[in-house]
Amino acid sequence: MSDSGSAPEVGEGAAARTAARERPLHLGLRQNAAQFTLLVAVNALVGGMLGQERTVLPLLAEREFGLTAYTAVLTYILAFGLAKAVTNYLAGAWSDRYGRKPVLVAGWVVAVPVPLLLIWAPSWGWVVAANVLLGISQGLTWSTAVIMKIDLVGPARRGLATGFNEAAGYLAVAATALATGYLAGASGLRPEPFFLGIAYAALGLGLSTLAVRETRQHARLEAGTHTSRADGRHDHLHEELSQRQVFVQTSFREPALSSASQAGLVNNLNDGLAWGLFPVLYAGAGLGVGRIGVLAALYPAVWGLGQLVTGALSDRWGRKPFIVGGMLLQAAALALVAVGDAFAVWAVAAVLLGAGTAMVYPTLLAAIGDVAHPGWRASSVGIYRLWRDGGFAVGALLAGVLADLYGIRAAVWFVAALTAVSGAVVAIRMYETHQRGPGPRRRAGPAG
User: Fold this and answer.
1) Which UniProt keywords apply (predicted)?
2) Interior CA angle at 254 toward 252 and 256, to 5°?
């Protein structure tokens, strides 16, 4: 074929690509089903990276590295929580500034060495370092995945979007915790359980780089048609807020945003307790690694499956009832763990704890999406997740100190009471964020 004959084909290909880029964007789950489904799969891989540790690391600390003080054992959760909390904040700000996809890909690059470090770690310090990297990776990937789903579906289906996102992640946590428990029981604590993490990192990086598309333009489309609530609650929350103003509104000033932030922190505080101390409590009662793996998987499995229901129902019934009820149910479940002494009792407690967390997790994220303006929503999600995942660090430190001083059961009782207080704060301070009625709306203007 001559050069003159090939030129039109190149031009036609470029024109087709340009036309594809210029096709009008649409908000909605059905309109963006392929990308939404892909992002669900990516977040399942993100959850799997976390799940590889849930059963194995607390036992590894005791049996291979000889750590006996609970505070020392929980240093890896403290490191993970601090790294993830700070990175959540940065991920939100960077997603607004540079786009979602670069942040997602960067998170997977950071994840690649984590399972290798866990396999080869010659001392506990290496495990802590691996968890710093894991926290950074989780902050970048999980934050961005949920932001991208919220971008795609628009305001009507936020609960459904966050429910699918969190369900995929925590079902993968559960499945991987169960699988690593059986692998550890059959082959030892290292290296076989961490081979799953190597596979997850490779798949996640490949899909995010080659198949995921940028969604920031969908947020801009929603911002162009954004309207305020009929009751005028959000009229002061206009698009042009500085990063400092977004932080203050999300953390302290805006009643719904700040209530969600404190509830998220307490939720992950008790998850840090469950992650770090429950396996040690179960082992002390004589349970084998396989049964500990079942309990470690049961809680996030119910949590993950439940979010498929609770997220969507919150689009119909509102966010606040699920958040208040979920925090109180978690408190009751933790109390049951504290009084239990057998596999059956702890299995019931794990189911209740998972159900309570499923009521809370997607609805808190959806509430942030309800209130935050699309122009700074990613930043607000990042700040909320800064507080929420800071709960891992607070939980690890608090639970470790209390367990060393008074025993594991006393630490569980204290966190149960704290969780109940958090639910009461939401009941008193938070208003319903999801506007279900079609009442009159007016376009938001700048704050006075």
Assistant:
1) Cell membrane, Membrane, Transmembrane, Transmembrane helix, Transport
2) 105
Burial 356-387 (b: 16+ CB within 10 A, else e): bbbbbbbbbbbbbbbbbbbbbbbbbbbbbbbb
Amino acid 407: pLDDT: 92
CA quadruple 81, 82, 88, 91: dihedral sign: negative
- State the virtual CA torsion across 139, 415, 129, 261 in degrees, nearest 10: 20
Lowest mean pLDDT among 100-104, 261-265, 383-387: 383-387
Furthest CA-CA distance within the chain: 84
Helices (H), 56-99: 56-63, 70-73, 75-98
Other CB atoms within 10 Å distance of the CB of residue 447: 11
Q: How far apart are CA 345 and CA 339, in angstroms?
A: 9
Cα–Cα distances in angstroms (integers) from residue 205 to residues 101, 133, 147, 215, in the given order: 11, 15, 18, 18
Measured CA to CA, the distance from residue 167 to residue 173 in angstroms comes to 10
**Mean pLDDT of all residues in 164-182:** 87
Distance, in Å, from the CA atom of 263 to the CA atom of 300, rounded to the nearest integer, reads 18
Q: Concatenate the DSSP letters of all residues of 412-425 into one string.
A: HHHHHHHHHHHHHH
CA distance linking residue 363 with residue 87, whole number of Å: 22
**Which residues are within 8 A (CB) of 397 and not within 5 positions of it... i.e. 6 or more apart?**
71, 74, 78
CA distance 103 to 167: 22
Query: Rounded to the nearest 10 degrees, how much is the dihedral formed by the CA atoms of 309, 391, 43, 244?
Result: 100
Tokens of 174: 């559960």
Place of tokens 């109940």: 420
Cα gap 407→405, rounded to integer Å = 6
| Mean pLDDT of the 239-244 span | 80
User: Residue 10 in 3-state DSSP?
Assistant: helix
The answer to whether 334 touches 270, Cβ cutoff 8 Å, is yes
Contact by Cβ (8 Å): 197, 118: yes
CA separation for the pair 434, 446 (Å, rounded) = 22
Q: Does 114 have pLDDT greater than 90?
A: yes
Cβ–Cβ < 8 Å for 419, 327: yes
Q: Which domains does the chain have, with CATH numbers?
A: 30-222+241-429 (1.20.1250.20)
93, 201 contact by CB (below 8 A) = no
Tell me 233's DSSP state: T
**What global pTM score does this model have?**
0.76
Query: Is residue 72's pLDDT more than 80?
Result: no
Q: Is the pLDDT of residue 231 over 90?
A: no
